[in-house]
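Exercise 7. Given the encoded structure of a 207-residue chain, write a plausible sequence.
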């Protein structure tokens, strides 16, 4: 897996993240993907997915595979009533239509954040540390979400969580609750991109 395996520092875990309020007009699932809409036009093309993954620290190969896999898989679902496009655009406003099966249920059908479902992840699976998941606990969590013979949903869920774990686990192999929460509301990606840019700038200054 390409990219940094160091944990990402997320502060303020005790407060409700921006966009979690039910009255917010933008659903949280939209906020989750907005980082990848690099020009903020409401549409995500494969090139933007690639750029987004590179920005958070993923290698060229993983970013390329992600761009193909994600855009080919989600484009048609987010463009109801529209003809096929070989550019595989994803429309952010309809992203809830592409929510895959065998998931945690933290996003509801409208893309809203469900606090009780989020809390269940750690109540049921965080055995070693109350606010973090080990690799084995994450695997058990993913397995608990699987619906019978839903191989596409299994693959989508495994890929998402595996990438998150590899990029954001700490030095002890723990994926922390505040990091997972920030991934759900999308703020994690901005933080990761800023940290990567800061490290790159520091390395350039030291040369």
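Solution.
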């Amino acid at each position: 897996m390409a990219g940094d395996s160091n944990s990402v520092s997320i502060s303020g875990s005790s407060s409700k993240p921006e966009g979690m309020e039910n009255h917010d007009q933008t659903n949280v699932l939209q906020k989750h993907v907005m980082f990848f809409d690099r020009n903020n036009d409401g549409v995500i093309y494969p090139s933007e997915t690639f750029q987004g993954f590179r920005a958070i620290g993923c290698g060229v190969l993983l970013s390329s595979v992600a761009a193909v896999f994600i855009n080919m898989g989600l484009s048609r679902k987010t463009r109801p009533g529209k003809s096929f496009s070989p550019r595989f655009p994803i429309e952010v406003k309809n992203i809830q239509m592409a929510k895959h099966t065998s998931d945690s249920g933290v996003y509801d059908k409208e893309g809203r954040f469900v606090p009780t479902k989020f809390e269940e992840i750690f109540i049921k699976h965080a055995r070693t540390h109350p606010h973090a998941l080990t690799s084995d606990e994450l695997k058990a969590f993913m397995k608990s979400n699987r619906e019978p013979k839903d191989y596409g949903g299994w693959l989508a869920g495994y890929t998402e969580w595996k990438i998150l774990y590899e990029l954001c686990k700490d030095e002890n192999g723990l994926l922390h609750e505040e990091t997972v929460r920030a991934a759900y509301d999308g703020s994690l990606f901005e933080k990761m991109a800023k940290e990567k840019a800061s490290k790159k700038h520091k390395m350039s200054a030291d040369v």
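Remark. Confidence is low (pLDDT under 50) at residues 1-6, 11-23. Students should compare their own answers with the one above.
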